[in-house]
Design a protein that fits this description.
It contains 4 helices and 10 strands; from the N terminus they run H-E-E-E-E-E-H-E-E-E-E-H-E-H. It is an alpha+beta fold and about 180 residues long.
């Protein structure tokens, strides 16, 4: 996967066995942290050619959350931040997403570091109200979001050039 995406090794942490890779607006860290926990963290800060379950920067927050929920991810609110969690093969994974003021996703992070267990509340609720509230906010601010998205796409295309055109993150590939 590192090679497929053209990620370049940048450094190794001085106090752990974590290696860092990056390219464009993509950062990837993998290894064992200072506490002895192994895992990874994959962050997309705006590369529109890289998707996570089909979600890419520029999509609406409600559409992204709906897509992830359909894939079995559970939404969880922690100190005002919304995250999605899912247990896969006994490991808990977390998706954080970064919406702009117009309700569009500007990036996302997938990780299994520092995520040790699923909160019990996630299995006892179907939190659809957050999605409905997100849809209402999105409709109100959609006109401004389209202008912002066009500007972002134009600058992203200039930065991406002839590099990787389309890619999808696959947890199974990361774990290999």
């Amino acid at each position: 996967m590192i090679k497929d995406l053209g990620l370049k090794y940048t450094r190794k942490s001085s106090d752990s066995e974590v290696k860092y890779y990056e390219k464009d607006k993509i950062n990837y860290a993998v290894g064992t942290d200072y506490s002895g926990n192994s895992g990874f963290e994959f962050t997309n800060s705006g590369a529109t050619y890289l998707t996570l379950y089909g979600v890419k920067p520029g999509q609406s927050k409600s559409e992204a959350v709906n897509t992830w929920k359909q894939m079995g991810w559970k939404i969880f609110t922690d100190d005002g931040d919304e995250i999605l969690l899912k247990e896969i093969d006994g490991k808990v994974y977390e998706i954080n997403f970064f919406p702009n003021t117009y309700g569009k996703i500007t990036g996302w992070r997938l990780r299994n570091w520092r995520v040790r267990s699923m909160p019990n509340a996630l299995f006892n609720s179907d939190n659809n109200t957050s999605v409905e509230e997100m849809k209402e906010q999105e409709e109100v601010e959609n006109e401004n979001a389209e202008e912002n998205l066009e500007e972002s796409e134009a600058s992203a295309q200039m930065a991406e050039g002839d590099e990787v055109q389309n890619a999808e993150i696959d947890i199974e590939e990361i774990e290999e």
